[in-house]
Amino acid sequence: MKQMTVISGKGGTGKTTVLASLAYLAQGEMVVADCDVDAPDLHLILKPKIKETHDFMGLQTAVIDESKCVQCGECEKNCRFDAIRDFHVDPRHCEGCKVCTLVCPEDAITMVDEVSGYAYVSHTRFGTMVHAELIPGEEASGKLVTLVRELAQKVAEREKKDLVLIDGSPGIGCPVIASITGIDLALIMTEPTLSGIHDLERIVGVAQHFGIKALVCINKYDLNPEAAQQIEKQCQEMGVDVAGKLPFEPGVVDAMVSEKTVVEMGGSVGKAIEDLWDEVKSNL
User: Fold this and answer.
1) 267 exposure class (CB count in 10 Å sphere: 0-12, 13-18, 19+)
2) How far apart are CA 167 and CA 164, in angstroms?
């Protein structure tokens, strides 16, 4: 089984738009996983119908047993997050650090699992999709990404699919690392701007640090040809191939409004994404 993740050093580079088009081109052969769990939006195009729901247990929360508590105040004094007041735990402030359980002389405090989000296995017009969402204000999105990927691999094995397409998170943080760990190929989306060049360098560094083969796709390259050429030169210096260059086309917005992929709408961008997919397949 092969796994490929589409990532970017920043948001807004067309990562999800391209991933949806690749899912269209690979339909019947793959399982798609939306690992951008902090702000998922792939469902807006794929329109999944949920078949399975899995609870996600994130950070644990402290609970005080009032029958054992002697109100010594040690827990409140040692909680650096001010989560304990008047011998009660405010779950909104508790970070699950467990210090209170260590300092309590009566063993009156225990840690309990809390539902922090949900993972879903759904049916889409392109095949099975695994996706998730965090409850607003909850953390541990890296752990949720791992859960989504594990479910996607199990589904792919069950359905005898040879490919898992993953929509990763933007940036270079924990959710991104969880999205690319152990994959076969990373497709990095970038754009021809100064910030795009800088963010590309950072995310390529992350991929190379983990020994992951990476390809680069330059979105809207024709809006700034000089910057696009600079990106190609930079990629050459970093030992990364440019797999595709997508032109700017206002029709991309029409595709989003119509809840369709760019490839379904046709046009120059659709053709460029088809060529990109051919390049990706040759590298998998």
Assistant:
1) middle
2) 10
Burial letters for 89-122: b for 16+ Cβ neighbours within 10 Å, e otherwise? beeeebebbebbeeebeeebbbbeebebbbbbbb
Please list, in sequence order, all residues whose beta carbon lies within 8 angstroms of the beta carbon of residue 168, skipping any fewer than 6 positions away: 5, 6, 7, 8, 15, 35, 36, 175, 176, 179, 180
Q: What is the DSSP letter of 247?
A: P
Percent of the chain past pLDDT 90, that is, above it, reads: 76
- Residue 120: the pLDDT is 97
Q: Please say if the pLDDT value at position 138 is more than 80.
A: no
Q: How many helices (H) and strands (E) does the chain have?
A: 11, 13
CA 249 to chain centre: 26
Six-digit token string for 186: 């990373």
Q: Which domains does the chain show, CATH number per domain?
A: 2-57+117-283 (3.40.50.300), 61-112 (3.30.70.20)
pTM to 2 decimal places: 0.88
Q: Is 139 exposed, middle or buried (0-12, 13-18, 19+ CB in 10 A)?
A: middle
The one-letter amino acid at 240: V
pLDDT for 236 equals 94
Helix, strand or coil for residue 172? coil
187-204 confidence digits (pLDDT tens): 999 999 988 889 999 999
- In the structure encoding, which two tokens stand for residue 48, read together? 């999944």
For the chain, give the number of residues. 284
Q: How far apart are CA 85 and CA 125, in angstroms?
A: 51
CA distance from start to end of the chain = 10
